[in-house]
């Protein structure tokens, strides 16, 4: 699968998905230090700077009007900013003008690119924040461009890390039979899906998250981090130490996108067998 990595950071999503059989065709990342990390490990993959200037039209991906990739994009991921969602912040939400409001760019690109799959990640406060309205907004935006979604919470500790880092992972897929309903008031939006005539939608619904659950509960995940050098976190003499720590703090744990990627690949293989 040809994959576009939005809000790429140091490439945690792509590292995991590449292991599952995906191929990253472009990154989008605005911070300079993570750009250097991406360029080092994926030297042949273009890096767009600003998600608001990334567009896809007639099979061509443009960065601020300049072509960076030509061809189909089968999937994309986006760990959009969490600063205005996290309980550690002011919880300003995902409205216009907030950093977490860059979610709207994910929704726009979902409609423009129309991939087979999109994977979004954020802190679990997204599920309950704003009395549930933030997540309603996310699901509404996904449905508005003709996609359905499943979501699952997975912690870094579930795949062997020493820390929890609980995150919600949203997996979207196209549903040509999905139909949106207008907002029933200014704050609440609902959607319904009529997939009675869609064999693929019937087979797909619920399968992907079930496969993800199977992947990480049935697999062995040895504890990692035990072999860390005995160096203080703020040790002098380590080049770009603050940038490194910040990038790690913002990164996703690659083992989880790998699980999700393998679940998607497994689903595709099994659906073709059923068909």
Any overview of this molecule?
The structure is a single chain. This protein is an alpha/beta fold and 275 residues long. The chain has one domain: Vaccinia Virus protein VP39 (Rossmann fold), CATH 3.40.50. The protein is built from nine helices and twelve strands. It has helices at residues 12-19, 32-41, 103-113, 125-128, 133-144, 199-204, 207-218, 241-250, 255-274; strands at 2-6, 23-28, 47-48, 54-57, 60-63, 66-70, 75-78, 117-123, 147-155, 166-174, 178-180, 191-193. A seven-stranded mixed beta sheet has the order 3-2-1-7-8-10-9, sandwiched between helices. It has a three-stranded antiparallel beta sheet with strand order 4-5-6. A two-stranded antiparallel ribbon has the order 11-12. Strand 4 (54-57) and strand 5 (60-63) form a beta hairpin. Helix 1 (12-19) packs across helix 9 (255-274) and helix 7 (207-218) crosses helix 9. The chain starts with a strand and ends with a helix.
């Amino acid at each position: 699968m040809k994959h576009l990595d939005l809000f790429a950071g140091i490439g945690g999503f792509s590292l995991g998905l590449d292991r599952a059989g995906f191929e990253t065709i472009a990154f989008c990342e605005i911070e300079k230090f993570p750009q250097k990390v991406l360029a080092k490990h994926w030297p042949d993959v273009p890096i767009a700077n600003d998600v608001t200037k990334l567009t896809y039209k007639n099979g061509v991906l443009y960065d601020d009007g300049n072509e960076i990739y030509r061809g189909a994009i089968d999937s994309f991921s986006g760990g959009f900013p969490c600063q205005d969602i996290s309980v550690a912040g002011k919880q300003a939400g995902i409205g216009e003008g907030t950093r977490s409001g860059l979610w709207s760019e994910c929704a726009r690109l979902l409609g423009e690119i129309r991939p087979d799959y999109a994977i979004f990640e954020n802190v679990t406060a997204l599920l309950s924040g704003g009395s549930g309205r933030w997540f309603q907004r996310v699901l509404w935006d996904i449905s508005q461009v003709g996609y359905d979604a499943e979501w699952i919470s997975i912690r870094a500790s579930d795949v062997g890390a020493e820390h929890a880092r609980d995150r919600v992972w949203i997996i979207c897929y196209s549903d040509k039979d999905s139909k949106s309903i207008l907002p029933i008031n200014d704050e609440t939006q609902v959607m319904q899906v009529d997939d009675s005539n869609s064999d693929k939608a019937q087979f797909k619904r619920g399968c992907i998250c079930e496969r993800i659950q199977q992947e990480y509960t049935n697999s062995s995940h040895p504890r990692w981090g035990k072999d860390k050098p005995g160096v203080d976190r703020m040790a002098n003499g380590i080049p770009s130490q603050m940038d490194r720590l910040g990038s790690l703090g913002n990164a996703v744990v690659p083992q989880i996108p790998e699980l999700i990627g393998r679940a998607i690949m497994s689903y595709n293989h099994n659906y073709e067998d059923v068909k």
